[in-house]
Amino acid sequence: MRPVFVAGAAVHPFGKHPDLPAAELGYRAVQDLIARTGVAPEQVDTGFGGSTYGGSLLAQRVLQRVGVSGQPVFTVENACASGASAVHLGWQAIAAGTADCVIAFGTENLSAFGGGTLPLTTADLEIDQGMVMPAAYAMRAQRYLHDFGATVDDLTRVSVKNRRNGAANPRAHFQREVSPDDVEQSRPIADPLRLLHCCPNSDGAAAVLLCSEDFAKDLPTARVRMRASVVRSGRFHTSFRDMTWPDITERTAQAAYDVAGIGPADLDLVELHDAFSVAELLHAEALGIADRGQAFKAVAAGDFDRDGRVAVSPSGGLLSRGHPVGATGVTQICEAYWQLTGEAAELQVPGAEVALTHVTGGGIFGVDNGACAVHILTTT
């Protein structure tokens, strides 16, 4: 396979944008990307756009507005991994030699649903019986606290850390620090989770330029190597389900480590899927940056702080940055790109050279999650 590079990134700030449909948000992010990189529309070989609720032919509607018309364009839906899956398909095209320049983006407008939990398909046994994401993560949290001796205070520390990180991120939905009291006094959602243990439903978009090494040489922007791009789906079974172990994350991450030729100890920063505070603990352990049942101790010791052993969600994560489903995975890659090129400003992780991004989602009966994507990026 040929080396694949990220040579540009753009994010439309996350937040509540009720008057901006997903296609408009996506257009603004892609237009910004083109302006930053100077790439002409005719130089783009193919495009991929990820969205869960954006509707049919979303990628075509967005890319046509920036002049990418006639080339092969694909709209991708893969739950919360939609945008990251779009990036993965772009990575495949570059690595296989069928394209030299690819635009991949993700976009979502969740304000259209007016608040509350996101609508899920009713063609599913567990969802038909009332399962929603806050309830699923609350069960995971209860089991984690029970099995490993953690407390609600440990969940709160995750929220406080990530909101502190996001306070310095101009692209984040929430740009304000919170105290432990703020978290603990926020309204209950699903025991033991309170409102500030949960990420917000957000609107936003992000885009990246993927290219071959030869193409990247002619661009004015810095580039980083995308060492691995892996997508996996959940394994179906109807036997006992361990609520404290996201098997899909472990399998996807291990495949990415094998492709990249690195391990968890080599990571300088991780942007993971902290849709709820307990998710940081679960996924950190499955990614191998903490031992089983020990991630809450790593958070308490400052290991996951921006200047810690490995910075986890230095951008603020989903808890602060927000979660416009289809855009989340692409935004993580944008944040990692800026870290590795030294353009992260107040968010900068000292000496960052290796980054991992992780996104997972989609509730389906019989699997822990429907889809998971892991990307590994390096400075060389």
Summarize the structure in words.
- This protein is of the alpha/beta class.
- It has helices at residues 22-37, 58-65, 82-96, 125-128, 133-148, 152-166, 180-185, 213-216, 247-260, 277-287, 295-300, 317-321, 325-340, and strands spanning 5-15, 46-50, 73-76, 101-109, 188-190, 193-194, 203-211, 224-233, 269-271, 311-312, 354-361, 371-378.
- The radius of gyration is 19 Å and the shape is globular.
- Helix 2 (58-65) links the parallel strand 2 (46-50) and strand 3.
- Helix 1 crosses helix 2 (58-65), helix 3 crosses helix 13 and helix 6 crosses helix 10.
- The model has no long low-confidence stretch (mean pLDDT 94).
- The strands form two sheets. The protein has a ten-stranded mixed β-sheet, sandwiched between helices. A two-stranded antiparallel ribbon has the order 5-6.
- It starts with a strand and ends with a strand.
- The chain has two domains: 5-113 and 203-223, Thiolase/Chalcone synthase (Peroxisomal Thiolase, Chain A, domain 1), CATH 3.40.47.10; 125-198 and 228-378, Peroxisomal Thiolase, Chain A, domain 1.
- The chain has 13 helices and twelve strands.
